[in-house]
Automatic annotation (TrEMBL):
Residues 79-239 form the CRAL-TRIO domain. It comes from Clitoria ternatea. InterPro entries: CRAL-TRIO_dom (IPR001251), CRAL-TRIO_dom_sf (IPR036865), CRAL/TRIO_N_dom (IPR011074), CRAL/TRIO_N_dom_sf (IPR036273). This is CRAL-TRIO domain-containing protein. SUPFAM superfamilies: CRAL/TRIO domain, CRAL/TRIO N-terminal domain.
């Protein structure tokens, strides 16, 4: 057990007073004025142990410096057709906000193929969405609601989940490791919807491996989860695959404004225009480098490796038992 939260925060504050440049500047990009809330996120991720949380945060800040994460929002994925291909195969988008003001991100786990670009583009895209959420969206909604809002909600659509998910486990483990080590405790709740039998089979063996704080955040909803999600958000904020019972997620819908995955959706238009504008402002200082923005991939924690291996084993068992 760590120190009580008040003592732990004070201890953590004292450790962070020793921070020098350029770590101090990148830390400002992380906390966005919400220092206490940020320290608490890292403390939660390390069971309220200030020393371990301090090391985690220092590792995060050094990772940001070494990989120029502070500048990633000025590094567009170009040309636009390539970015559209990334969006069509890495299904994620902002569908709206909960009644408490938390951004609602929809993620098409089952139908994401990650097969239209190199792994570096998908990692770049993922980190850009994280940074845009933390440095643009969350400060904006915090100002609107008059209080710090530092987390989001994620709705995970399992429609289309197949054995081919085996091909994606390595990339998904990389992305999960980046989030766990550098964006801890940014998701308030994960809602799983449209879960097929193959998910249920994996969930039974994975659930016991998860930390208690992670299990508490993850809720598997029946069907498309519409009724349950309507208790925390308005209909207009529901992801398109939750709009009506029996609906199914797709990469393209006739109404582009409904499908928050597509580049035509207002969220992705605003994000892409923001990144292009930031690039234009930096162009006078340094030319835009073509190609993907390479980020060092962290070694996944042992627990995540174990979870990935368990999922892979369960999918193979499912494959063999069904004669696929």
């Amino acid at each position: 057990m760590g120190l009580p939260s008040h003592d732990a925060i004070n201890h953590f504050h004292a450790l962070m007073q020793q921070l020098d440049e350029p770590l101090r500047t990148t830390f400002q990009n992380v906390h966005q004025g919400n220092v206490n809330e940020t320290l608490m996120r890292f403390l939660k991720a390390r069971d309220w142990d200030p020393s371990k949380a301090h090391k985690m945060l220092l590792d995060c800040l050094n990772w940001r410096l070494q990989n120029e994460i502070d500048n990633i929002l000025s590094k567009p994925i170009v040309p636009a057709d390539l970015y559209r291909a990334v969006r069509d195969s890495q299904l994620i988008g902002l569908s709206g906000y909960s009644r408490e003001g938390l951004p609602v991100f929809a993620i098409g786990v089952g139908l994401s193929t990650f097969d239209k670009a190199s792994v570096h583009y998908y990692v770049q895209s993922h980190i850009q969405i994280n940074e845009y959420r933390d440095r643009v969206i969350l400060p904006s909604v915090s100002k609107k609601h008059g209080r710090p809002i530092i987390t989001c909600i994620k709705v995970l659509d399992m429609t289309g989940l197949k054995l081919s998910a085996l091909n994606q486990i390595k990339l998904l483990t990389i992305i999960a490791s980046i989030d766990d080590l550098n964006y801890p405790e940014k998701t308030n709740t994960y809602y799983v919807v449209n879960a097929p039998y193959i998910f249920s089979a994996c969930w039974k063996v994975v659930k016991p491996l998860l930390q208690e704080r992670t299990r508490r955040k993850l809720q598997v909803l029946p069907g498309c989860g519409r009724d349950e999600l309507l208790s925390i958000m308005d209909y207009s904020s529901l992801p398109h695959f939750c709009k009506k019972e029996g609906s199914r997620s797709s990469r393209h819908l006739e109404n582009g404004s409904e499908n928050c995955y597509t580049l035509d959706h207002p969220f992705h238009q605003q994000l892409y225009n923001y990144i292009k504008e930031q690039a234009r402002l930096r162009e006078a200082v340094e030319p835009i480098r073509q190609g993907s923005f390479h980020v060092d991939f962290p070694e996944p924690p042992d627990k995540e490796v174990e979870i990935a291996q368990t999922i892979e084993s369960e999918l193979h068992n499912f494959e063999n038992s069904n004669g696929v």
